[in-house]
């Protein structure tokens, strides 16, 4: 049974992804819209595709190193291979509290020159900036063979006010 989707905001862009390859491609296309200073918050159940999307972001940004889940190291920095911003990939799953617990990661220092992607960041990193892209990935719960994902992208703040996220659905 699929979890009910939250109410839709008119500024949301909704996409349906039917395979891990499509999720990775979505990340590659999304990377073209990102620049240094961007915070991307990924929300979704275990196995929803957050790391797969981030792997595509890394490919699209042209960063060094394989993008894998940083669950046990909490954060990984992937430097750019071509002069673009580095990708800072954070997995906040094991962190309990808000931004206080994340201060040791110095995300506020890294943010201006990096693209920061935080998995499981809801309720933990919103204080970093008013400008962020929230990506929510819904999948069927309990049916691990269903590859269909419903992705909702919401740009918040001035940075995202003029970005047309609907270009990702083409």
Mean pLDDT: 83
What string, H for helix and E for strand, traces the elements in order?
Answer: EHEHEEHHEEEH
Structural classification: alpha/beta
Q: Which spans have pLDDT < 50 for at least 5 consecutive residues?
A: 1-10
Strand order, largest beta sheet: 1-7-6-2-5-4-3
**Helical region count?**
5
Helix percent band: 10-25%
How many individual β-strands?
7
CA-to-CA gap between the ends? 28 Å
Shape: globular
Rg for CA atoms: 15 Å
Biggest pleated-sheet summary = 7 strands, mixed
Question: What fraction of the residues are assigned to beta strands by DSSP?
Answer: 15-25%
Describe the structure.
This protein is α/β, with parallel strands linked by helices and 170 residues long. Helix content is 21%, strand content 24%. The protein has helices at residues 20-31, 50-61, 99-102, 107-110, 158-161, and strands at 13-17, 39-44, 75-78, 87-91, 115-119, 132-139, 149-156. Strands 1-7-6-2-5-4-3 form a seven-stranded mixed beta sheet. α1 crosses α2 (50-61). The longest helix has 12 residues, at 20-31. The chain starts with 12 loop residues before the first strand and ends in a 9-residue tail after the last helix. The relative contact order is 0.25.
């Amino acid at each position: 049974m699929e979890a009910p989707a939250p109410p839709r905001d008119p500024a949301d862009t909704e996409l349906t992804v039917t395979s891990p390859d499509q999720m990775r491609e979505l990340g590659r296309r999304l990377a073209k819209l990102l620049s240094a200073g961007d915070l991307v918050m990924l929300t979704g159940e275990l196995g929803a595709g957050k790391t797969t999307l981030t792997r595509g972001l890394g490919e699209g940004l042209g960063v060094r190193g394989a993008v894998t889940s940083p669950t046990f190291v909490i954060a990984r920095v992937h430097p750019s291979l071509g002069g673009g911003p580095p990708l800072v990939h954070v997995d906040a799953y094991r962190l309990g509290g808000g931004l206080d617990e994340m201060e040791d990661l110095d995300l506020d220092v890294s943010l201006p020159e990096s693209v920061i992607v935080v998995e499981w960041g809801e309720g933990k990193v919103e204080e970093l900036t008013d400008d962020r892209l929230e990506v929510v990935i819904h999948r069927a719960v309990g049916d691990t063979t269903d590859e269909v994902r419903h992705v909702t992208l919401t740009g918040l703040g001035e940075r995202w006010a003029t970005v047309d996220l609907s270009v990702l659905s083409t």
